[in-house]
Amino acid sequence: MSTNPVTSVVTPAAPRPALDGLLAVLPAAVDAAMRKTLPHHYTPELARQTAADTAARLTHAHTGGAR
Asked: Cα-flanking dihedrals φ and ψ of residue 60, to 5°?
């Protein structure tokens, strides 16, 4: 959501179906990739942290760096 500076009306954020789709499958993809490529270092918690960090970075990039 964002606020229109002229009217001070809160408007929904721009649609982001591609990003939302990616974010939906990201945790499972990271988990599978880490199990396969890093079997001796893999933990479910590490996979969750990696997916969460990646999701945050992608979302930040999608918003143009806005916070």
From this structure: -60, -45
Average pLDDT over residues 2-7: 51
pLDDT tens figures, 10-52: 445 666 888 999 999 999 999 999 999 999 999 999 999 999 9
Using an 8 Å Cβ cutoff, are 58 and 22 in contact? Answer: yes
Residues 47/34, Cβ–Cβ less than 8 Å: yes
Number of domains in the chain: 1
State CA 20 to chain mean position distance.
8
Residue count of the chain, please give it.
67
Domain containing 22 equals: 15-62
Q: What is the pTM of this model?
A: 0.71
Residue 46 lies in a domain: yes
In a domain? residue 2 = no
Tokens of 62: 């999608």
